[in-house]
Amino acid sequence: xxxxxxxxxGKPEDSVNRRFSVAPMMDWTDRHCRYFLRQLSQHxxxxxxxxxxxALLHGDTQxxxxxxxxxxxxxxxxxxxxxxxxxxxxxxxxxxGYAEVNLNVGCPSDRVQNNMIGACLMAHPALVSxxxxxxxxxxxxxxxxxxxxxxxxxxxxxxxCDFVGQVAETGCNTFIVHARIAILEGLSPKENREIPPLNxxxxxxxKKDFPALEVIINGGxxxxxxxxxxxxxxxxxxxxxxxxxNAYLLAEVDAALFSANHMPPSREQAxxxxxxxxxxxxxxxxALHHITRHVLGLAQGFxxxxxxxxLLSTQVHKTQDPLRxxxxxxxxxxxx
Length: 336
Ligand SMILES: Cc1cc2nc3c(=O)[nH]c(=O)nc-3n(C[C@H](O)[C@H](O)[C@H](O)COP(=O)(O)O)c2cc1C
Description:
Order of helices and strands: EHEHHEHEHHEHEHEHEHHHHHHH
Distance between the termini: 21 Å
Helix content: 40-55%
CATH architecture of the largest domain: Alpha-Beta Barrel
Number of strands: 8
Strand content: 5-15%
Shape: globular
Bound molecules: flavin mononucleotide
Radius of gyration: 20 Å
CATH topology of the largest domain: TIM Barrel
CATH superfamily of the largest domain: Aldolase class I
Oligomer: single chain
Number of domains: 2
Strand order of the largest sheet: 1-2-3-4-5-6-7-8
Largest sheet: 8 strands, parallel, barrel
């Protein structure tokens, strides 16, 4: 699907439109997932899973950077806290053609905390600023940050303002704010997405106190009506779990949030559209379920939905003829 930057409503110096984005999600928003989501919305900005600088610089670099050009507009999220490594990783990302590079300051997992990655960095605004500065100095694509409204021990609104203010001094203009704190000890990453209460008011207040910044709100958003409401207070909305589990929501995004006038694809059309991509993946030795595990959410609330999910989650591992099974799954979506 063509990506036309001229249609962007973003600022002239930053051609990425962040009015609606799909959140970075480890193990979920891989390249196959993003390719599928792109069939549903031409305008949603898509984020990669977090890639650590260690993996990118010392691992299988090409595998971590790989994407299909149809995935654009596409941003990469990095995890790290070494300014030189983040600068080098940003350069690789820019060279690979990503439209934006984002720094993860929101992930609460123990594993990443030990490496000074993610939400624990909210306690170190000077280091985060140094990282962002190094990234900005190394690339000409926009550098953005995704963070929480706080962490345990740094939970006040003034500490949030202090963090945002310091990072903004580097020239970083875009702040994606997950509207809950992260509790760095005792909660799993999953619990940290559910237990600390959402506080949208602080994100709205941040936009009021820093009107020149682009503030994107994230956390617990489930419907386009909720998106519209948040957009009265913030510059953009980012959806994670709902966009994944109920991907068909994206089919309405272009018309509802980007004033696009093309017809949204049906579920069946969106799924059939990825057939050539699947053929290619199979030809390269890949498996059907690598891709179809991300489409299960298309089937909700209609006769045949269960059979669809069963085909693509159970039978998919047994079949000798994956394309035939895929076509059967498409047939179950007929007229949907
Ligand atoms: C499975 C999963 C993996 C995630 N991985 C990342 C990640 O790599 N980087 C990140 O910044 N946030 C990650 N998150 C958090 C989401 O980006 C998002 O901030 C969070 O889910 C709240 O938004 P939501 O309520 O719309 O899902 C992850 C969330 C989930 C569910």
